[in-house]
Amino acid sequence: MDAREKEALLLANQLCFPLYAAARGVTGLYAPWLKPLGLSYTQYLVCLVLWEQDGITVGEIGRRLRLDNGTLSPLLKKMEQAGLLERRRSPEDDRAVLVSLSPQGRLLQERAKDIPSNVGSCLPLEPEEARQLYQLLYKLLAKLPVGAASPGKGENMSRIYDFTAKDRKGEEVSLSQYQGKVLLIVNTATGCGFTPHYEPLAAMYKDLKDQGLEILDFPCNQFANQAPGSDEEIHQFCQVKFGTQFPQFAKVDVNGEQAHPLFAYLAGEKPFAGFGKGIKSSGLEAFAALNNKAYGDKAYVRWNFTKFLVDRQGQVIGRFEPTEDMNKVRAAVEAALKA
């Protein structure tokens, strides 16, 4: 880091606390109006978005408010529990969650009409001073990456980082924390013929983690009940037998009505295109078809150790069935890291 970079970083750090204090000051100014409505300031901002356009996706709310999904999801859940809004799957895309105001939430709009629309009217600033300040802050914020709502990125990027998943301890994790990384997302099982794939995956992670690779492991018991253990039992098995160190999430469904939305999205971006050629592939094709018959058009993943490759921009660029040579998988990962 050269002298100019150090100076810029020092100035940025010096600005953080005054800006934070100013933000708290603004939210405090709204307290007298929001308290009778039973709203926090952040809840009020969500309501403002929905009063302008009701029935939009979680991702769109995040983009407008510049909130990542890890912050936005608990906020929406609390508002839903308070009866202010409703969430539902989009009828056009079951991977998208639509947010709408409840009747109670819509009633608040009339009661909130007296809240100042311009905080400048509450601040000790002249109108022209406030206008210049807003313009400058807006330009600065537009250059800062903020969670899933980072500007200047494609739709695919915002979609992958909108998802959350529970880790093996039951804590909700936002995929927005992996922005800028190359991701290999895998559904796994501890009692499958492809379970030895853990070994090259562990080696790949060890070799390439420092270059920006993250492997996200999602155990699944939907394929011939080959992952029957608890999350902790699965974790211990993988660490002891294969020395895995990459993030391991709680067990999920990847097919059917209860499929984790992440896998529905990944499979939508990269649909199944066959297990390849050869006796082994043909045998798995027949066995998988029988196993997945019950899931119909929601059989997003056909077998254990299907791997989805996501580039640093959040785009799903590859899908590898368990029959794919792991050397080819690694080559694709290395190419994505260098891109």
The low-confidence runs, each spanning 5 or more residues with pLDDT under 50, are: 146-158
How many helices? The count is 12
Shape, principal axes of CA atoms: globular
Largest sheet: 4 strands, mixed
How much is the average pLDDT? 86
Structure classification: alpha+beta
Strand content: 5-15%
Q: Which value, in Å, is the CA radius of gyration?
A: 24 Å
What is the β-strand count?
9
Major sheet: order of its strands? 7-6-8-9
Q: What string, H for helix and E for strand, traces the elements in order?
A: HHEHHEEHHHEEEHEHHHEEH
The termini sit apart by 24 Å
Give the fraction of residues assigned to helices: 40-55%
Put the structure in a nutshell.
45% of the residues lie in helices and 12% in strands. The chain has 339 residues and is α+β, with helices and mostly antiparallel strands.
